[in-house]
Every structure is written in C-alpha cells, then in structure tokens.
Amino acid sequence: MAADRTQGATAAPMTAAALVALLAGAGFQVTEAQAQEMLAAYGHLEGMKARVRSGSCFGADLTAHFRLPG
Amino acid sequence: MTTDRMPRSIAQAARAIRTEALSPVELTQTCLARIARDDPRLNAFITVTGERARAEAHAAEDAIAAGRWRGPLHGIPVGLKDVFATKGVATTAHSRQLIDHVPAQDSAVAGQLAEAGAVLLGKLACHEFAFGAPAPDLPWPPARNPWNLAHFTGGSSSGVAAAVAAGLILGGIGSDTSGSVRSPAALCGIAGLKPSYDLIDRSGLFPLAPSLDHVGLMGRTVEDCAILLQALAPRDRASAAGGVIALDTDIKGLRIGVVRHFFRDDAPISDAGGRAIDAALDVFRDLGCAVRDVLVPPLADWMACGFLILLAEAFAVHERWLKDRPERYGASFRESMLLGATISSADYLHAIQRKNELVAAMNAVMTDCDLLVSAVQRGEAPRLDGVPKWGLFERPSLAMPFNLTGQPALSVCCGFGEHGLPLAVQLAARPHDEDTLLRAGHAYQCATTWHDRRPAL
C-alpha cells in the first residue's frame, strides 16, 4: 500500500497563479509576486509532506483489515 | 564598582551577594551602564526596564541585609525574551501586531523570577513571534552577535543570547520550539538549556507551536542554567534528588551515544565544528565516560515531521490575524505562516503518527545510553546579511529532534572557528533526567575553558 501513503503529494509543479488561487480558496489574499516568492518554500514543504507520509505507519492497522481507496 | 568587576556568572554573583560582598544595586547599575553603552550596537533589547530594575535591586539589597535571602537569583539582573507576558511592561513578540500590547498580568515565568528575587532589566529581541529569520521590515532591528557585530546571533532567542554573551545581563529566559534557545546559545558562545517538555510552566508565553514549545534557559555557564532551572521548575521536579541538582558529582561511567550521522551525513557541519565535537568527546572519555556512535532515523525525517507540526500549529495560532490584519506582520513571517494554510489535517495526522514512531526509535536508543551528543549548528555564525529567508524550510534543524522527543538538551561552547566565532556541542538526556545532563555539561566546563572567553565589544 505504499502508493496510498503518498497520496496528496503534488504531482505537477505549483505555479504562482495556482498558489494564489489555493490560498484564496482558504480566504487569504496574496499577490502573484508574493506567491512567486513563496514557491521555493512551498516546494520544500511538499517534500516534507511526502516524506512524512512515506515514512509513517499511519493507517497500518486499517490496511491490515481493509482495502483502502487510492 | 567598575564594569571590569562584573561577575562572570550568576553563581559567582550569587555567592558575593549572599555574603554582602556585592551590592545588587551596584550590579544592576553596572548592567544598565553596559546596556546604555553597548546595546545601540547590539540591538539586544526592545524594552529596558531601568526604573523597575533599580527598585527591585534596592528591595533585594534591603531584604538580604535583613536576613531574608531568597536564593541564588536574589538580586541577579536577568532578561526575558519578548514573548513572555510581563505585567505593566510592553510585550511585543518583536511584531507590529503587538507593538502597543501591555499585559495585565505576568507570565508564569516572569512571576517565578520575581518570586526568586531576580531583577528584570528588560525585554529582549527575537525573530517575529519566535519564528523565521532576521527581517528588515520589523519595528526593531535584529540583534547582532557580540563576537562580530556583522554576524548573526542565531534565533529566535537572539536578544537574550547576545545580551548574556556581551555581559549586559547575567542570565535570561527564551523559548525553544526547534532550537530557538540552543542555536543562539551556540552561535553566541554561551550555555543554553531546553529542559524536558512541560517541565516549566508556559502560561503567558505567546505560543509558536504548543506541542513543541519549551521554555529555555540561557547563561554563561551550565551551572547558571541549573540555577535558573531550580527557580522555574516545580520544586519536586527540578531534580530526581528532590529539587537540588548536585552538579559536582562524578560522571565516570556515563554511556554517551554520538549521533554522528546527524552532523556528518544528514546535515554536514564545518570541519572545525566536527573537530571541536571530537575534542569534546575526548574530554568526556578522559572524564571516564564510555563513548560510541549510535544510529537513529535520518535528520530529514525529524525535520519533516517537526516542521509540519510546527507550521500547522503556528498557522492555527495566527489564522485570524492573517485574515484580518496581515499587513502588520513582516513579509517573511506572513508568507511563512500562509504556507501553513496548505497543510491538511491528514498531513498533520501523518506527522503526529510519524513523530510517535521517531520518539519510539529514540527511546530504544536511550535504553543503552545516558546521554546523546550531536551538533547544534553547522559551524560559526554566518554574516547577518547572509542568512537565507527560507533557511528554516531548506535546512534540517539539528535541534529539532529533541523538541519532538521532549528530552532535555543543552548547548555548550566547545571551541572557536577560523573567524573567531564560537562553536558548540549539543548534549541530550532521557526525558526528565536534567540531573545527568547538567552534571555532564558542568563537568565538561570544569575540564575546559571555552566558556571563560568573552567577546571584546
């Protein structure tokens, strides 16, 4: 079930416009220039999310008994 | 008293004050004179509480003369990172968000220091809300390293570290969520202790990430950190021996595990930093300790897990202000916190689960070790203008593992690099075994003289 643990990691590189839209959806206003500045850090954050998911045993009990979607 | 007669440590000052060989009033005046002379270049202070300090020093002097000595902090000048609430004294967290904030009551730490008779000299600079890097768009400038004013102090308890190292205060209190006490202590050449999680009451501390936040203690010596700990920890929990930490006991036979892969492979430190840690290990061997390398999960795992938890929790703290008045933050902090909005609850839960696994792995290693040794920083302090804006995202923190485990950890100066700036070694013990940690740190300082060096301002 290793693939399940990486679900949610960004497949395509994030763009400034997409980050503006993502944050706007959560109620936060940033300019495209600000989002551009944030992209480098966003990439590191996505890497951390993937690393934690791939290393974590979260749901291990569940997957022993059920077939999870993904 | 001239500034040349400034005591070298809290312990030395306390002995002199108790026997009335040193006046708390004179000591306070000396510190205030040093602040007036040196702080315009150091930027360590946000608020200097001179009038209050003089009154507290007079009260201490009168009480001691009347035979009411309260303990080794009585009459000692100290400072607080400006994230601890102080009744009637501005508490800003180094942010425009709180620029006019004057708390109505003391934090637990401020209250305990007052109860111990310490003299509060002021509130000290940090990174905005104890996170990030030095920023040019905040209401106060970043603190500077007293060993070289063009260099970084480390953070986020930057002002306390600079002020202690420069001799403007004898000790101070910071907060440590991913090394914010140990890192500046390392780069400024002083001792920095992060006690066990929850050992010191955090009420009235502006939170960064509550599950990782620790109150931290800073002084020139490990003995000074022990004195501060005994004043701030519950009396029955400061030491397994019932509140009295017996520093001067033999450490022969202690088993030390060196997490060498952290600082050799995972986040390689400078050659000078590595040699300094090797030399420190030789000192511990000479003191009779058994030293061997150990393996724990890679630093990147600790960092990913800790940073996600930190950012998710910090975002929760700041969410309202990020929506209502984002312009009052510096750009660096605001942009960092907004990235917290991209962390899902599933990401956070995976991180919590991973934390539990990492802690279990560390506990397994600690069954055969009394202490761990690692690095705190990658080498000497970089230039202030060379600190990367996104450094916290880019570079694994060598301090973070012990925020996740809640173990007590200590940074101690173990040498100086080619640019004349301090180097440090990090020690960590089992949770709630501050006794062993402080005994080992004190024994190291008794066997070496690095902590005796002073910056020439």
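The radius of gyration of chain B is 20 Å.
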